[in-house]
Design a protein that fits this description.
about 375 residues, single chain
Length: about 375
C-alpha cells in the first residue's frame, strides 16, 4: 500500500513537472520580454542608486533616469532618423540605375571571359528581373511592419515592467530568493548580486562598443566615398549587439552599395575597411571597454545566438548573450563551485560518519 502511494506521488509530481514545462514553453515569448525588462531594470537601478548616493531621493532619481533615457533616445532619433530615412529612400531610387550599371559591367566581361567558363549573358538577362522585386521590396517596406502594433505593445509592456522593477525592486528580489531552500538563500543573494554586476558591466561596455564602431565605420566609409555612409554605419553599430554574426553581416550592405553605385573595386575597399575595423575591435576596443564583461568563449556565444535564435526568433538572438552570461554564472557558482567542488569532501564526511556509527554500534555490542 505504501509503495503504491509513493508511486502515485511520483507520477503526480512528474505530470506536474511536464505540465509546468509545457506552460513555460507556451509563454516563452512573454518570459523573454520579462527577462529583457529585468536586464534593463538592473542597469537603470544601478544609475538610480548612484543618484541616491549623491543625495537625490529615490523617486526623483527614478524620474530623472527615465526622463534622461527617453530624452537621449528622442534626440538620437531626431538627429539621425531623417538622414537615415532619406538615405534609404535614395537607395530605393538608385536600385534601377545600379542594376543597369552592374549589367553593363557583366556584359563587358563577355569580351574576354570564355563563355564556357561563365555564362555572363544569362546573368545579364536575369538582372532586369531583379529590378521589380528589389524596388517593390524597398518601396513597400511598410509591409514588413504589419505587426507594428504587437511590437509597440511589447515595448510598452517591457517599459512598464522596467519602471515597476526599478520603482521597488526589493519585493521581487525577495520573492525570487524565497524559491531557494532556507540554507541557500544567502548564497543565492550573492549570486544574484554577481549577475547584476556582470550584466551592468556588459551592457555599458556593449553600448560603448556600438557607439565607437558606428563612428569609426562612418568616418571610414566617408573617406572611401561610399554612398549611404550614415545608414551603413548605423547598421554596423546596431549589429554589434549580436556577437560574431553581427559584425560579419554588417559588411554586406556597404559592399553591395559600393559595388552597385560606384564600382566593384569599391566593394573590395569596403571589405578591407571592415576587416581592419574588426581587428581594431578585437584587439584594442573590446579588451579596453569590456574589462567587466564575463569571459565567454567565441564558440559558446556563436552557438548561443544560433540556438536561441532558432528557438525564440529575434528575441532569442537579441538576448542570447545576457542569457548565456546569467546561465554561466549560475552554473559555475551553484553547480561547480557549491556542489562539484565539494563532492569528494561530502563523500568523505559521509563515509566517516558511517564509520563512526558502525564503530559505535560495534562497541555497544561488545559490552
Amino acid at each position: 500500500m505504501e509503495a503504491t502511494v509513493v508511486s502515485l506521488g511520483k507520477l503526480i509530481g512528474f505530470l506536474a513537472f511536464a505540465v509546468s514545462l509545457y506552460i513555460l514553453w507556451q509563454i516563452r515569448q512573454i518570459l523573454l520580454l520579462v527577462f529583457a525588462a529585468v536586464v534593463f531594470a538592473v542597469v537603470l537601478n544601478r544609475i538610480v542608486r548612484w543618484l541616491q548616493r549623491s543625495g537625490v531621493k529615490r523617486g526623483i532619481a527614478i524620474a530623472l533616469t527615465v526622463i534622461s533615457l527617453l530624452g537621449i533616445l528622442f534626440i538620437l532619433f531626431a538627429l539621425i532618423g531623417p538622414s537615415f530615412a532619406q538615405q534609404l529612400e535614395q537607395l530605393g531610387n538608385l536600385v534601377p540605375i545600379s542594376l543597369g550599371s552592374l549589367g553593363d559591367w557583366i556584359n563587358s566581361l563577355s569580351n574576354w571571359l570564355p563563355e564556357r567558363l561563365i555564362n555572363v549573358r544569362s546573368i545579364s538577362d536575369f538582372l532586369p528581373r531583379l529590378q521589380p522585386l528589389i524596388t517593390g521590396l524597398l518601396n513597400n517596406a511598410y509591409i514588413w511592419f504589419s505587426d507594428l502594433l504587437a511590437i509597440i505593445l511589447n515595448l510598452l509592456l517591457v517599459l512598464v515592467l522596467i519602471i515597476m522593477l526599478v520603482a521597488n525592486p526589493a519585493p521581487y528580489r525577495r520573492g525570487l530568493i524565497l524559491l531557494f531552500p532556507a540554507f541557500y538563500r544567502r548564497r543565492a543573494c550573492e549570486i544574484l548580486a554577481e549577475c547584476e554586476s556582470t550584466l551592468v558591466g556588459w551592457v555599458s561596455a556593449t553600448l560603448i562598443d556600438m557607439a565607437v564602431i558606428t563612428v569609426v565605420s562612418f568616418i571610414g566609409l566617408l573617406i572611401l566615398g561610399v554612398p549611404l555612409a550614415l545608414a551603413n554605419a548605423i547598421i554596423a553599430g546596431l549589429l554589434e549587439f549580436i556577437p560574431n554574426i553581427g559584425p560579419t553581416l554588417s559588411v554586406i550592405p556597404p559592399m553591395v552599395v559600393g559595388a552597385l553605385l560606384v564600382s566593384p573595386g569599391k566593394a573590395v575597399a569596403v571589405l578591407i575597411l571592415y576587416i581592419l575595423i574588426q581587428q581594431f575591435e578585437a584587439y584594442i576596443l573590446v579588451p579596453f571597454v569590456m574589462k567587466q564583461q564575463v569571459e565567454l568563449l567565441p564558440a559558446v556565444t556563436l552557438l548561443a545566438v544560433v540556438i536561441f535564435g532558432s528557438l525564440f526568433g529575434f528575441l532569442g538572438v537579441f538576448l542570447a548573450v545576457p542569457l548565456v552570461i546569467v546561465s554561466k554564472i549560475w552554473i559555475y557558482e551553484l553547480l561547480i563551485k557549491d556542489i562539484l567542488n565539494h563532492w569528494d569532501k561530502n563523500e568523505k564526511d559521509s563515509s566517516s560518519q558511517e564509520e563512526t556509527i558502525a564503530l559505535a554500534y560495534s562497541a555497544k555490542g561488545n559490552r
